[in-house]
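Structure in, sequence out. Go:
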């Protein structure tokens, strides 16, 4: 993504931006966007938007860089334009950019939803599972889905008089992918598309797995699950330990105290109404236990005094 970031920096200046806007109006008159979106290191929604916009404006970007490199006299600016043009006019870059844009189009709605204030953990995990299911479908039907993805870079490359080629293969290659392939489409499917989706799925699983465990443990606080015929068994103790680890800053007690209060809570005749009520009840019980211990200590010292 260094090329997209460098392009955004290059066209951030007014003079070069005017050339880009003029070129966009000539190449894509219906395009509403007139400038690139920066690759923000922290705002993931903007990163998705940046990749999608860059691909939509790719033809205009190439034409604008060609005009600057051919007509401008400033050597430093021309040199930067030529370097960016050489990086962009590469079949591997264009195909990879389209693959990232296709995956970003699927994951962008999830990123937007995760920023909303009223989204709870259960709904976030449900949305993540939906995105994961779509990506798994893209991975399972890789032959069909990548063929559709590959068509657009091919058309785009024809518009800028270039051809998508496979990198030269060697018998022993250590520093880049060297998968066997009969065509550029097959090569980029094996070398970029499948590994990228696999990596994306692994990252989603790692980022949301801990939250899934926490959510399943929170269910144990509900009355129907907290009070059962088996009592407070070993599974319930493990769930209590996971909850304490996740919410230790809120509970403000040791793991041993929390597990003990959880066992006491589940043994009551009147179970908590909901999960939040259970947490509040346990916090109050822990506070009362601490107060009782302190009072007992004061009473003991008082009785020992002559």
């Amino acid at each position: 993504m260094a090329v997209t970031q460098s392009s955004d920096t290059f066209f951030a200046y007014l003079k070069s931006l005017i050339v880009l806007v003029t070129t966009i109006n000539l190449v894509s008159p219906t395009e509403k966007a007139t400038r690139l979106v920066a690759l923000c290191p922290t705002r993931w929604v903007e990163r998705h938007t940046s990749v999608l916009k860059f691909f939509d404006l790719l033809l205009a970007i190439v034409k604008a860089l060609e005009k600057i490199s051919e007509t401008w006299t400033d050597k430093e600016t021309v040199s930067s334009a030529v370097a960016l043009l050489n990086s962009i006019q590469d079949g591997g870059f264009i195909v990879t950019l389209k693959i990232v844009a296709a995956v970003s189009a699927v994951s962008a709605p999830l990123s937007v939803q995760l920023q909303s204030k009223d989204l709870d953990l259960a709904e976030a995990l449900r949305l993540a599972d939906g995105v994961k299911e779509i990506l798994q479908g893209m991975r399972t039907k890789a032959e069909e889905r990548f063929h559709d993805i590959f068509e657009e870079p091919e058309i785009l490359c024809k518009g800028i008089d270039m051809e998508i080629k496979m990198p030269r293969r060697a018998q022993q290659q250590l520093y880049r992918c060297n998968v066997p392939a009969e065509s550029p489409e097959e090569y980029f499917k094996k070398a970029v598309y499948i590994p990228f989706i696999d990596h994306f799925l692994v990252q989603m699983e790692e980022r949301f797995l801990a939250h899934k465990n926490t959510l399943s443990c929170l269910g144990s606080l509900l009355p129907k699950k907290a009070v059962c015929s088996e009592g407070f068994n070993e599974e319930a103790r493990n769930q209590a330990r996971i909850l304490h680890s996740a919410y230790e800053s809120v509970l403000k007690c040791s793991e041993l105290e929390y597990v003990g209060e959880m066992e006491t809570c589940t043994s009551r005749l009147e179970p908590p109404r909901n999960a939040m009520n259970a947490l509040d009840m346990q916090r109050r019980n822990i506070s009362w236990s601490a107060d009782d211990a302190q009072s007992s200590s004061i009473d003991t010292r008082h009785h020992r005094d002559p």
